[in-house]
Design goal:
Umud Fragment, subunit A, single chain, eight-stranded antiparallel sheet
């Protein structure tokens, strides 16, 4: 092999090294970007907001089965849930004892806060002896409920589809600590995008 051929081979090798190096550097940069995106997505889903799917018709007519929502998680670290909020929550202990999984989220409307007295009589829900104005329900409740006072640290929640909802009128009070977040936005179906 002549010295010219040796030089040519050496030059080819030196040219190919930077290409490999650039490829590896590009691969490493892409990996870092993907890793950062995954960490950001994890942090957002865990602490800020997450998408949720409506699995039943217990919130008709407000929400329909199959709707997709954004649930924000920050506000309940700053204040307690308020009457009228639509909340997503982990099943309370009494439902977990019946076989519901801890991660099987429910969605209902907050009707009673700590200290409120709840009564259902002749199709009307009363809060502290005042009839609750409910223009969002599917139909008036066809059951009665004796007066119950919501204990400190608990909520009374009901589905908007009063007569087809597994809610506080059946299983009792919801511990506030079970609240995952507040439904704020429907993003699917697209023709119903908007605030909840």
């Amino acid at each position: 092999m002549t010295s010219e051929e040796k030089e040519l081979i050496k030059n080819k090798q030196s040219l190919s090294e930077p290409k490999k190096s650039k490829f590896l550097r590009s691969l490493w940069e892409n990996f870092q970007i993907i890793l950062i995106a995954l960490v950001i997505a994890f942090v957002i889903r865990t602490f800020i907001a997450e998408p949720r799917y409506i699995p039943s018709d217990s919130m008709l007519p407000t929400l329909e089965e199959g709707d997709r929502l954004v649930v924000e998680k920050i506000s309940y670290h700053l204040h307690e849930p308020h009457r009228g909020d639509i909340i997503v929550f982990e099943p309370p202990p009494q439902l977990q004892e019946l076989g519901y999984e801890k991660d099987q989220a429910f969605i209902k409307r907050v009707i009673g806060e700590a200290g409120d007295t709840i009564l259902v009589n002749k199709g009307t829900v009363y809060i502290n002896n005042e009839p609750l104005k409910e223009n969002y329900i599917f139909a008036p409740p066809n059951y009665n409920l004796s007066p119950l006072q919501v204990p400190t640290g608990y909520l009374f929640v009901m589905g908007d589809n009063r007569n087809n909802s597994n809610d506080s009128h059946i299983w009792g009070f919801l511990p506030q600590e079970n609240a995952i977040g507040r439904a704020i936005l429907r993003f699917y179906p697209f023709n119903k995008i908007g605030r909840v």
